[in-house]
Write a structure and sequence with these properties.
single chain; 486 residues; alpha/beta; 6-stranded antiparallel sheet; 13 helices; 21 strands; globular; binds (3S,4R)-3-hydroxy-2-oxopiperidin-4-yl beta-D-xylopyranoside
């Protein structure tokens, strides 16, 4: 039983290198692709590659207005694999007039990221700052409704395409109160934050939903405790929240403290991911940068780090603050080397809470290069149907579960199945029967490797309808996958 269609030449593809060059357009990637024989313990030479060794990302904020600057884009493309729009997805940018959405600048950042094989964090949907004038003038139930409409409008536009959204930004007060910040949103009622999160979950079930704030890095500060108590309460009551973003703008008034690791561990222990979302360190201490990175690496659920800009001259703090990893000429600073070394010293270690091997469950399998999900075309159950990429959604034809028998199942009884063992063999659904062509290794680097073939699950493109096949593993983002558990 179970002998299926032989490897179909109709689905054979002319090798992955051509596609990758087409998709990424950078000759250096070809060299990387050809050097798959590098020893596993070789130090990585970019921040992104170094972070990927432990299943994490390393990101930066990007300003659309700087995408014409070649020094800027060269560094950003080389070093980072997660992108946040510095201002372009904020409320004033995306809904300048009530009910009229404008995604032109946001899309420029999004498209640059995805065309270069990077993922995107969404920032931010509900915030007291950078509100358009019309929203600043609202209050009460009309402001509440405007917030809901805004979340639906922006998340709808980027549905299925965003790794994590900062749903609510900076809602807590500085100082010793541990309470909420006064704002027009807060005055609509204390439940505005949970309403924002519930709205966001429905608007895009595939995005992780984060609460993001500054001055919540020091475990002893009242503001940190206030946010911690809110997240604990949300988890207890089932309000949808997946992550906490520690902005981590460190300066003399808000310095790095060695209890930062306790803060990260404590949030993670509530059952949320922690992301360092806007890191900059006034003065750029290489030691402090290394401490921050090592604190994240010490906590499996600290899933990635984003710095708030590329070069010092790009920083919102001004170049004089010297807060980033590259100087104004684009040279690597001492802090860059200390971050890279810290990431390399972490070595390969899985992030258990996001690894389906250790925590089997139902969920989507999302391609890192595409942001799209493994999808059974037309929700068919027909054995032998080749799988494709499609915009992520929550229907059953994108809900996969890993089993202790190393299968990856859909619809309960159909398996992810390799119709052959060579490059280009199609990956399809087939009734589960226990064969090695239906067994897969889920690796910490995000690759999914066929037990029978030793080849990687590979997307032959990034668009809707791109087909899934086996291909020699080479470390590309078209062979990396993340699980979003439902
Ligand atoms: C900053 C941008 O970097 C600036 O360009 C803009 O003028 C103001 O906002 N916390 C946040 C970010 O969540 O959105 C802020 O970004 C920095 C502080």
């Amino acid at each position: 039983m179970g002998m299926k269609a032989s490897p179909s030449s109709a689905h054979g593809r002319p090798g992955s290198l051509r596609r990758i060059v087409g998709a990424v357009g950078v000759a250096g990637v070809v060299a990387t692709a050809l050097m798959t024989a590098a020893p596993a313990d070789a130090a990585a030479s970019t921040l992104a590659a170094a972070a990927q060794q432990s299943g994490r990302y390393f990101g930066t904020a990007i300003a659309a207005g700087r995408l014409g600057d070649q020094t800027y884009t060269t560094i950003a493309n080389r070093e980072f694999d997660m992108i946040t729009a510095e201002n372009e997805m904020k409320i004033d940018a995306t809904e300048p007039n009530r009910g009229q959405f404008n995604f032109s600048a946001g899309d420029r950042v999004y498209n640059w990221a995805v065309q270069n094989g990077k993922r995107v964090r969404g920032h931010t949907l509900a915030w007291h700052s950078q509100q358009p004038g019309w929203m600043q003038a609202l209050s009460g139930s009309s402001l509440r409704q405007a917030m809901i409409n805004h979340i639906n409008g922006v998340m709808g536009h980027y549905r299925g395409k965003i790794y994590a959204w900062d749903v609510v930004n900076e809602a807590y007060a500085d100082g010793n109160s541990g309470g909420r910040r006064d704002s027009n949103l807060q005055r609509t009622g204390n439940d505005w934050i949970e309403v924002a999160f519930r709205t966001a979950r429905a608007a895009d079930p595939s995005a992780k939903l984060c609460y993001n704030d500054y001055n919540i890095d020091n475990w002893n500060w009242a503001k940190t405790q206030g946010v911690y108590n809110m997240v604990r309460d949300f988890k207890q009551r089932g309000v949808p929240i997946d992550c906490v973003g520690l902005q981590s703008h460190f300066n003399s008034n808000s310095p790095y403290n060695s209890n930062y690791r306790t803060t990260i561990q404590s949030f993670a222990a509530l059952g949320v991911d922690v992301q360092i979302t806007e890191l900059d360190i006034q003065g750029g201490s290489a030691t402090t940068y290394a401490n921050v990175v090592n604190d994240c690496l010490a906590v499996p659920r600290c899933t990635g780090i984003t710095v708030w800009g590329v070069r010092d001259s790009d920083s919102w703090l001004g170049a004089g603050a010297s807060p980033l990893l590259f100087d104004g000429n684009g040279n690597k600073k001492a802090a860059y080397n200390s971050v890279l070394n810290a990431l390399n010293n972490a070595g390969p270690s899985p992030t258990p809470t996001t690894s389906p091997t250790q925590n089997p469950g139902a969920g989507q399998i999302r391609g890192v290069a595409s942001g799209r999900c493994v999808d059974v075309p037309n929700a068919t159950t027909t054995d032998g149907t080749q799988l494709q990429l499609w915009d992520c959604h929550s229907n059953s034809n994108q809900q996969w579960s890993s089993t202790s028998a190393q299968e990856i199942r859909v619809y309960g009884n159909r398996c992810l199945d390799a119709a052959g063992t060579g490059n280009g063999a199609k990956v399809q659904i087939y009734s589960c029967w226990g064969g090695d062509n239906q067994k897969w290794r889920l690796n910490p680097d995000g690759s999914i490797v066929g037990v029978q073939s030793g080849l990687c699950l590979d997307a032959a493109g990034t668009g809707n309808g791109a087909q899934l096949q086996l291909y020699s593993c080479w470390g590309g983002n078209n062979q990396k996958w993340t699980w979003n558990r439902a």
